[in-house]
Specification:
Blueprint: H1 6-15, E1 21-22, H2 28-36, E2 42-43, H3 46-51, H4 55-60, H5 75-82, E3 109-113, H6 117-128, E4 132-136, H7 146-152, H8 155-168, E5 173-175, H9 182-188, E6 192-195, E7 200-201, E8 214-216, H10 217-224, H11 230-235, H12 238-250, H13 256-265, E9 272-276, H14 280-290, E10 295-299, H15 311-323, E11 327-329, E12 333-337, E13 341-345, E14 351-355, E15 358-361, E16 365-366, H16 370-377, E17 382-384, H17 393-409
Parallel strand pairs: 1-2, 3-4, 3-6, 4-5, 6-17, 8-15, 9-10, 9-15, 10-11
Antiparallel strand pairs: 7-16, 12-13, 13-14
Length: 410
């Protein structure tokens, strides 16, 4: 919590005659107020400086909105426990500042397909180096699955907004609601193509997965943002379809903070939720739903939950879920869905049944290189980054974008 350490720092400041340094996940506007009111002499920002070492210079230049945000994912802190290089999910140059400087080669026209975190990062980097960039996105908005990740975990929205703003102030040509095809690319005649279309999220072969109260991760994403599909038309009632459609038409679902607040009052989900899938998406979704008053159980065959989360964030999140009463059923087998429950064999060998008004299947994501393969076969020079090449989440997308730009420009 941002201000946990600030009140004690202010009290200490009153009692001593030496400089006081406050710290602890403090955002820049709050830090400015604290120092301005004399409640601390300095505010320490360790992780923020790893995310953007130019933070002090940008603030002094009045460019605070250009500071690359820390998303508090604990990638940097977790590296301490693994003995590897210090890493940052949003700053791939960290620890490699002198090894990953792209050369400025002859200017090229690069088409980037997919405007999620990897695609936007690649586009903005290429633009900054003076290349001509066309960014193609099939959806109506920039962001890709980062929008859904930002809904479940608010700090991700800061990265989303930062990337969108950087694209907005760049010379990147953005084509929304556009499907990339060999014919379209032939008309654009790019020198290089980057495919950043993300993973595919199929429905695993679980008995009962066709029932109307069972949602896939893709169903949830579409429902939250007012999109439609034949499956959702079958699974949701008229009121839900109208509400989400109105939200999309008015732009309400584009406002993630509004959606987060609104879902505390209403969601088209029952009180008892079972999530099948204990990786990053499943446990963050469990946190999101618990905070909105649902009774949540997470079931998976994995022996440990939280794959995709960094070590420290996984430890903290799983501990918090357990302390809040979220049931975490690891090592489950024979998982099946019935009309009002999820049944499985627990890790102890006992048969179990958990009542469920709705079931969310949050697993089954995998890379999808079909578009990249087709474009390569058509004769284009193609690089695949992000989840399209294998699920790597935000850090994988951002690092992949940086590496692709180096390859293109050297």
């Amino acid at each position: 919590i941002e201000d946990t350490n600030l009140p004690p720092a202010a009290e200490i400041r009153k009692a001593v005659n030496i400089p006081v340094i406050a710290l602890g996940r403090v955002e820049v506007p709050t830090a400015d107020k604290v120092i301005g009111k004399g409640e601390a002499d300095f505010v320490a920002m360790g992780r923020k400086l790893l995310a953007d070492p130019q933070l002090p210079n940008k603030l002094m230049a009045g460019q605070g909105d250009t500071v690359r945000p820390c998303i508090y994912c604990y990638t940097c802190v977790s590296a301490i426990y693994t003995g590897g290089h210090t890493r940052c999910a949003v700053n791939p140059e960290l620890s490699w500042e002198f090894e990953r400087k792209p050369a400025i080669a002859a200017k090229k026209h690069v088409v980037v397909i997919g405007a999620g975190p990897g695609g936007m990062e690649a586009a903005r980097r290429l633009d900054a180096l003076g290349h001509r960039v066309t960014l193609i996105e099939k959806a109506e908005r920039l962001g890709g699955t980062l929008r859904f990740a930002a809904l479940a975990y608010e700090p991700n929205e800061r990265l989303l907004n930062w990337l969108v703003d950087r694209i907005g102030e760049s010379n990147v040509e953005v084509r929304l609601s556009t499907t990339a095809s060999s014919e379209l690319l032939a008309s654009l005649a790019p020198d290089e193509v980057i495919v950043a279309t993300g993973a595919i999220r199929g429905m695993p072969d679980i008995p009962g997965n066709q029932l109307d109260h069972v949602y896939s991760g893709e169903d949830m994403r579409k429902m939250m943002f007012g999109e439609s599909s034949e499956d959702l038309k079958r699974k949701t009632g008229l009121f839900t379809r109208l509400a989400t459609k109105v939200g999309a038409a008015t732009g309400a679902t584009a406002n993630l903070d509004l959606v987060r607040k609104a879902t505390h009052a209403w969601m088209p989900l029952g009180d008892k939720i079972v999530i099948i899938g204990g990786e990053l998406v499943g446990v963050e979704l469990a946190e999101f739903l618990h905070e909105r008053g649902r009774t949540v159980t997470v079931v998976d065959d994995a022996p440990r939950f939280g794959k995709g989360l960094t070590l420290v964030r996984r430890m903290r999140l799983l501990a918090e879920l357990k302390s809040h009463g979220v049931a975490l059923e690891t090592g489950a087998s024979a998982i099946a869905i019935t009309k009002d429950a999820v049944t499985f064999t627990g890790s102890d060998g006992a048969d179990k049944s958990v009542a469920a008004d709705h079931v969310i299947v949050a697993k089954g994501a995998e890379g999808d290189t079909s578009l990249a393969d087709a474009l390569t076969a058509a004769g284009f020079s193609v690089r695949t980054i992000g989840d399209a090449g294998g699920v790597g989440y935000i850090e994988g997308a951002i690092r992949g974008a940086a590496e692709a730009v180096v390859q293109i420009t050297t």
